[in-house]
Amino acid sequence: MGDLQTRPKSQMSDKEKVRDFQRKLYQKAKQEETFRFYVLYDKVRLPHFLRESYKRCKANRGSAGVDGKTFEDVEIYGVDKFLAEIVEELENRTYKPQPVLRVYIAKANSKTRPLGIPVIKDRILQMAVKLVIEPIFEADFEDSSYGFRPKRSAKGAVTEIKKNLRLGKCDIFDADLSAYFDTIPHKELLTLVGKRISDKNVLHLIKMWLKAPVMENGRLTGGKKNKLGTPQGGVISPLLANIYLHLLDKAVNREGGAFYQSGIKIIRYCDDWVLMAKRIPQRALDDLNKLLKRMKLKLNEDKSNIVNAFDESFDFLGHTFRFDDDVLGRKLRKYWNVEPSCKSQKKVREKIREYLWHNGHKPPQDVANDLNTIIRGWINYFSIKGVTYPGKAKRNLRYYLREKLARYYKRKSQRKCKLYNQGACKVLVSRYGLIDPSKYALI
Fold this sequence. Notes:
Layout: H1 14-31, H2 41-44, H3 47-59, H4 71-77, H5 79-92, E1 100-106, E2 112-117, H6 120-138, H7 154-166, E3 171-176, H8 180-183, H9 186-194, H10 200-211, E4 214-216, E5 219-221, H11 237-253, H12 258-261, E6 265-269, E7 272-277, H13 282-294, E8 305-308, E9 314-316, E10 319-328, E11 331-340, H14 342-358, H15 364-382, H16 391-410, H17 418-422, H18 424-432
Parallel strand pairs: 1-4
Antiparallel strand pairs: 1-2, 3-7, 3-8, 4-5, 6-7, 9-10, 10-11
Helix pairs in contact: 1-3, 1-6, 3-5, 3-6, 9-10, 14-15, 14-16
């Protein structure tokens, strides 16, 4: 692809042009910690930024917003024409976001999580702003933050937790914030954003998205009077959530601070986080509550608790961490076992069951391909070389597949089909390439 610093822009793809600009912003922000960026709005409306934003939003798929418009509709209308209209609205300062469509998705505990779906135009613009401002805040973010950040993932957080457990930091405060995305205070959030960005037009865009009304069951709520929250599902919401909780990261990691003196480490994945230390004193928890109170956030007391990992297991990001016995020959030794949690195993089984229930007459090759998407994604997430041990969970998943596929092909007709008689799981694995979870390994 060549060196972005030496190639002329005319030869760069949209993605390369965006990356080149992001690199320069990041370097400037890293070199000058208090510098405020003031000419960004004109970058948001550049054609290559909007084209790249459209491409990324389309790749994320997602449902239609309140206007019912899909990406297929945009393609029919004309992408260039659609983006040109966005540029015109930005230049004329006539752009206004449409209401956010609120839907509810099922959670593993039988409860639901609210999800806000902006219309495609708003998604594209949010992505463009995110591409412009994210490098600035990336230069400030702490290494202890892993969620919704470039080149970072849950795997890094899980690896860091195991590293700290091996160092003896086995006092774990497993924190849960009450409805974090719904309770982020707008005023305080915009103040933090304004410490790095002084472009009033960009700030106005962010403020409009925070104040956008919500459409639920045909009724509008929220709007300009709303002072709290950013919708889960909004493209820019994870970045804003990280910007606000960066205050927490800084407080815990600050050298000489109360948390630092107690040897406390924080590992955070957006609004999911744990504190780890050899011993977490009560005064540290008191300081934590005071800090969250100043931030106008609240811990969920029922779900936030301290555990000693030597004595009991704890779950984080779908993994269970446990100090287990390992018999090697005649010697008994202990090791830190990290495996998929019971909830995570149940969730993947439910996905498979739901797929088989709703796809009753597909060819065996299609069934194998579709199931592989579910299985591969699940195994890849829980397989971290030298860190996790998902072997038992993978064997359990294979057993489940064998039983469910046998029932699936038994009910396809009144007479048992050939695949049922031959052993459906075995045939799908040998002839159609279905992944055997017990044998599948990352390359």
